[in-house]
Specification:
By secondary structure, this protein is α+β, with helices and mostly antiparallel strands.
Length: 491
């Protein structure tokens, strides 16, 4: 995934830039970067690898080099950024949260036209440099960003640090969020509103899909109106959003609690207490406890001082080891109890199976599991929220392959809640993970908790439905979106 932060202030901005970027760290663990601008000394940029340490420890020693009143920063799980570019539009730095499915095609097109690509990330094309080159093909920054909207298959939200403020653009379907904040003498823009409270910013505006704005120290200017259609990723509220963050005005933890509360009301299972799997299962467990009228127990704790997130290492074996080591079960709470656990999702199932075996070994009488979202049946082609590289890594697809002889056969039936195929699949997951029972949240429950119309939320990973698929199959939809904004401007 990834997250970014940008600010423009009447005062030196380095403190806000540093801490605001650090508050994106839950969204990525591979690389971090910041760039600042001063009218006297120009641009300064620094990028560090975060795979063996944390953002703060990498950047603290060089903070005095980030001079000036404006800057942008990024935490990324993909490429090294920000990129610095000097072109006919002027000098600027760019950071992105992007997934470019046609990156090789776009790169070859540029090479064929005589352009060159100078940056490589792990021997591969740097997506952020590619986005920068698409932007410089425009007559203006807005025109260049519309090139990105028009040409990229996948998603791309971005920040530009220019000599005249920070430009923010949310991807054309609004798959990932951008929010604007304001305080006396400063403006900021970020992926995660959780960056604002401790820095003194109040939420001013949520960017709409395809909207482009410029912030300066004294305010915000809209450069492009938002598109009508939106498909914001529902997994923001399920998993990768920070509990205190809000998207489209809806708090992540409130959604998780509501999902748990509704599941708890409907669930007939008899248990002694409920426990959340740290961290993203905690809010759901609190809600389930209230809805099911059963005590909440902290039977599993996360050891936070030294263990990073489970997907930090490059290989699956090490990710599984980290996942095992960072969660510590409490024998005194578990022993002899009928336990129910809440978690955000099941992807491969490997980690959960290991946890379940340990819980039984520590004396848990039963281990029931409730999941905050429907089963994951489709890989995400729009954002990088999972380390899974293909759908066969999903436990659901492996089971479908075992049942049907083909992992792609009859998937719509398996995605339909309470269908015979769905129930058979869920029962098999429970069996393989050594669970006494397993239930997933209904898609309708998740949509109600988020509080947006279904057509404005991307649920592709659960049911295969997405307006984005229509966009990829029919490029004219993109053109119609751009034409709509031009018509609005003319009116």
């Amino acid at each position: 995934m990834g997250g970014f932060f940008g600010t423009v202030s009447q005062q030196p901005c380095v403190a806000d830039l540093f801490y605001g970027t650090d508050y994106q760290s839950h969204l990525g663990t591979r690389r971090g970067g910041m760039a600042s601008f001063s009218s006297e000394s120009g641009f300064y940029r620094s990028i560090h690898n975060l795979e063996n340490t944390y953002f703060r420890t990498r950047f603290e020693s060089e903070l005095d080099r980030f001079v000036g009143n404006s800057g942008i920063g990024v935490i990324s799980d993909t490429d090294a950024q920000p990129m610095l570019i000097n072109c006919h539009l002027g000098r600027f730095a760019v950071v992105t949260v992007a997934r470019i499915n046609n990156i090789e095609e776009l790169a070859q097109k540029m090479l064929d036209e005589g352009m060159h690509l100078s940056e490589f990330s792990s021997g591969k094309i740097n997506p952020t440099e590619l986005i920068g080159l698409l932007i410089v093909r425009g007559k203006t920054f807005v025109d260049g960003i519309e090139n990105v909207f028009r040409m990229v298959k996948g998603s791309c939200s971005l920040l530009l640090l220019t000599e005249d403020g920070v430009i923010a653009a949310r991807d054309s379907w609004g798959r990932t969020p951008i929010v604007v904040g304001k305080k006396d003498g400063a403006m900021a823009v970020t992926s995660e509103s959780t960056a604002f409270p401790n820095l003194g910013y109040d939420i001013l505006h949520y960017l709409g899909p395809g909207e482009i704005i410029r912030i300066q120290a004294d305010g915000m200017q809209q450069l492009r109106k938002p598109n009508k259609g939106m498909q914001i990723c529902s997994f923001l509220w399920v998993y990768y959003g920070f509990p205190t963050s809000c998207y489209e005005g809806r708090n992540a933890e409130a959604v998780r609690m509501e999902c748990g509360r509704e599941m708890g009301k409907e669930d007939p299972v008899e248990v002694d207490c409920v426990c959340g799997i740290p961290d993203s299962g905690l809010g759901m467990a609190v809600g389930y406890s209230e809805g099911h009228k059963v005590p909440y127990a902290r039977a599993i704790s996360k050891y936070t001082p030294t263990w990073p997130r489970s997907f930090t290492p490059a290989n699956q074996e090490m990710r599984a080891l980290v996942a095992k080591m960072k969660l510590i079960a409490n024998r005194d709470i578990l022993s002899g109890k009928r336990m129910l656990f809440c978690d955000d999702s099941i992807v491969r199932g490997t980690q959960l199976r290991d946890h379940t075996e340990a819980l039984h070994a520590l004396g848990a009488k039963t281990a029931h599991m409730r999941i905050a979202c429907p089963p994951l049946l489709y890989g995400c082609p729009f954002v990088n929220f999972s380390a899974s590289k293909n759908e066969m890594e999903l436990i659901t697809r492996r089971i479908i392959a075992d049942f049907e002889g083909d992992m792609n056969k009859n998937t719509a039936a398996y995605a339909k809640t309470d269908s015979p195929e769905y129930n058979r699949m869920v029962d098999e997951i429970a069996k393989r993970l050594h669970l006494d029972s397993l239930k997933f949240a209904k898609l309708e429950t998740l949509v109600r908790a988020i509080g947006l119309p279904k057509e404005r939320i991307c649920t592709h990973c659960f049911d295969g439905s997405s307006l984005h698929t229509l966009e990829q199959e029919n490029p004219s939809i993109t053109e119609q979106r751009l034409d709509f904004n031009k018509e609005e401007e003319n009116n």
